[in-house]
Amino acid sequence: MSAVRSRHRAAVVAGIGGALPERVVTNHEIAARLDTSDEWIRTRTGIRERRRVAPGQSTVDLAEEAGRAALGPDGHADAVVLATSTADQLCPATAPQVAARLGLGTVLAFDVNAVCSGFIYALATAAGFIAGGMAERVLVIGADVFTSLVDPDDRTTVPIFGDGGGAVLLRAGEPGERGALGPFDLHSEGELAKLLWVEAGGAAQRVPENPKDRFMVMQGTAVFRQACARMAESSRAVLEEAGWMVGDIDRFVGHQANIRILQATAKQLGMPADAVVSNIDRVGNTSAASIPLALADAVADGTLTPGHRVLLTAFGAGLTWGSTVLTWPELS
Ligand code: UT7
Hints:
Radius of gyration: 18 Å
Number of strands: 14
Order of helices and strands: EEEHHEHEHEHEEEEEHEHHHEE
Active site: 116, 255, 285
GO cellular component, one term: cytoplasm
Shape: globular
Mean pLDDT: 96
Oligomer: single chain
Bound molecules: oxa(dethia)-CoA
CATH class of the largest domain: Alpha Beta
Number of domains: 2
CATH topology of the largest domain: Peroxisomal Thiolase, Chain A, domain 1
Distance between the termini: 33 Å
Strand order of the largest sheet: 1-9-14-13-12
Low-confidence stretches: 1-6
Domain Beta-ketoacyl-[acyl-carrier-protein] synthase III C-terminal: 239-328
Domain Beta-ketoacyl-[acyl-carrier-protein] synthase III N-terminal: 110-190
Enzyme class: transferase
Number of helices: 9
């Protein structure tokens, strides 16, 4: 799909926020328990540490904190779209609980599950609501507790994934203004679903036949190749649709899955290495939270400033992938 380019109303970024659990898990801590090393994890992934929720803390908590930060002190929204594949319950969605905690009243609220691409899918969904006149201000949140899906004994996934939340507030605005999102490029490839897969816990196998079936299994190398190819392809498509050249991009904010994936994709696109925005060393792969958290960190440390032209691209289980562009706005 390449779509959501309204002639009349654009979705404009009006706030940003991130949330991380306090508990830091270092590579050394993982290496003390599993057959791996700090050196292997750093050189193969770029990750030094990640965060993990405290007992009793879950997706709703991270989503609420990130959402509150994006709303700001007097912020309001008339819709909440939460990208997550680790909702607190299988039923209902988590977004209505987030909206209630934020005091937003009876606003429309629902979850979007496109795993690590979820935030881009959620942005496109929100942009569609704004373009269609269904909402004026939409709080778009990406939050995941992937440590709940990772097998604690699996050295191929434990080092990679961490927990976190990130959010942006979107408001209705003009297509040409700073902060306006779009166009979007979104895709899926269900035939390859098993490359990243959780066998049990859903309707197909509610109770795991084997206790390990409730954990995620990843074919790492195949996912790596798909991620580079699909994010590069989607980035090219969205740039063409936007009428932008690769050289126009100041900041490349890709899904933080592996620093080597980000570098390889940027190289394939012909983008300079210093355009790549990354916080993966500190947070690991936080799935749907990854892009808004990277944006929030880049704003906080001054890497991303008003006027920068930004390319967002993500890839995840499903398989799913997608991209969009914007010029970074002034945020109060
Ligand atoms: O969010 C979207 C989805 N996720 C991703 O995009 C992740 C994509 N994949 C990756 O980032 C990489 O494939 C990994 C980081 C998961 C693995 O890196 P790799 O360079 O593809 O390594 P590999 O899987 O080919 O494994 C190389 C070797 C293997 O040993 P042999 O067969 O060569 O003897 C693995 O058994 O490294 C071994 N290995 C490890 N060694 C130490 C795998 N995991 C570890 C580990 N510590 N944690």
